Amino acid sequence: MGSSPRVYLARHGQTAYNLEGRFQGQLPVPLDDTGRAQAAELAERAATGAGGRAGGTPFLALWCSPLLRARETADVVAATIGLQPREDERLMETDAGDWTDRTFAGVQAEAPDAFAAFVSGEPDFAFPGGESFAQQGIRVAAALAGIEEGALPALVVCHGGVIRIALFQRAGRSVAMGQRVPNGALIPLDPAEYAGVGGGAATQPS
After folding, report:
1. In terms of C-beta density within 10 A (0-12 exposed, 13-18 middle, 19 or more buried), how is residue 60 classed?
2. Is 12 a catalytic residue?
3. Is domain 7-203 in CATH 3.40.50.1240, yes or no?
4. Residue 191: predicted pLDDT
5. What is the pLDDT at residue 190?
6. Catalytic one of 41, 44, 72, 93
7. What is d(CA 36, CA 106) in angstroms, rounded to the nearest whole number?
8. CA 61, CA 38: separation in Å to the nearest integer?
9. HEC string of the chain?
10. Active site residue 93
């Protein structure tokens, strides 16, 4: 690898489901007003180049999850940095299965142990009737490997669960799996540059 990070991960802007505390999984949930503002702020950071600091190397590729909230965020970024988003289904959020469209509070009351495993990011956690973190990790790793073979530096607009898994895989730290990722956060994939997540208020990946 080079001396500077080659891939940056960004979480989509806020949705009404994020604000309410509801599992959106792979539903086509749009950004809310706050989310659109976060996307605009992300675009301004991305315009300064890799690292979100003045003088950074310009991004040469823009990738995104095809889920509506990520695509809407990527489109805002694209309008600012002049790149066409490229979708990859492997970057989608975890399939929440039977928990999709349910509130966090409702699931926690019904299945407290399973909900606690989700919140802490237990690597062997699986959504009832849906996807496990391990299954998601396989597709996320494959997607990022492909991105790293293309034009770099690259910006990847995706989801909290995707970012947590990617950081866990690269850095080997269990803390990454249990850490909240703020909406609109911009995070280097390179473990040497990772110093924690930043951005707006943190919400559960959903």
Report:
1. middle
2. yes
3. yes
4. 63
5. 82
6. 93
7. 28
8. 20
9. CCCCCCEEEEECCCEHHHHHCECCCCCCCCECHHHHHHHHHHHHHHHCCCCCCCCCCCCCEEEECCCHHHHHHHHHHHHHHCCCCEECHHHCCCCCHHHCCCEHHHHHHHCHHHHHHHHHCCCCCECCCCCEHHHHHHHHHHHHHHHHCCCCCEEEEECHHHHHHHHHHHHCCHHHHCCCEECCCEEECCCCCCCCCCCCCEECCC
10. yes
pTM value is: 0.91
Characterize the bridge pairing of strands 7-11 and 186-188.
Answer: antiparallel
Q: What is the largest CA-CA distance in the chain?
A: 50
Do strands 181-182 and 202-203 pair parallel, antiparallel, or not at all (unpaired)? antiparallel
Give per-residue pLDDT as tens, 175-203: 567 788 999 999 999 866 655 444 444 45
pLDDT digits (tens, 9 = 90+) for 107-157: 999 999 999 999 999 989 999 999 999 999 999 999 999 999 999 999 999
Tokens at residue 159, please?
A: 């989801």
Measured distance CA(155)–CA(183) in Å, rounded: 15
Intra-chain end-to-end CA distance of the chain, in Å: 32
Q: Where exactly are the structural domains of the chain?
A: 7-203
Q: Is the CB of residue 157 less than 8 Å from the CB of residue 63? A: yes
Residue with structure tokens 């850095």? Answer: 171
Q: State mean pLDDT over 162-187.
A: 84
